[in-house]
Amino acid sequence: MTINHAGTLGKEYFISYIKLIMNACGCSVDEAKEQTFKRLFNSQEENMGRETFKQFLNAYKELQG
């Protein structure tokens, strides 16, 4: 998936991305969250901005359901 660094990524983007990781790797939502955090944020919360990180966490919480 291509990332546009010009703006904030939304919750829906992260829901799709985490589901893609889960399907491709056959892993749990927790494992997919960790892989997404490493791949997109380079394991640093502030790497893509606070609002984008907040949207990432909101997506994770929704997927935990």
TrEMBL record:
Q: Which domain of life is it from?
A: Bacteria
Question: What is this protein identified as?
Answer: Uncharacterized protein
Q: Which organism is it from?
A: Cytobacillus solani
Task: State the organism's lineage.
Answer: Bacteria, Bacillati, Bacillota, Bacilli, Bacillales
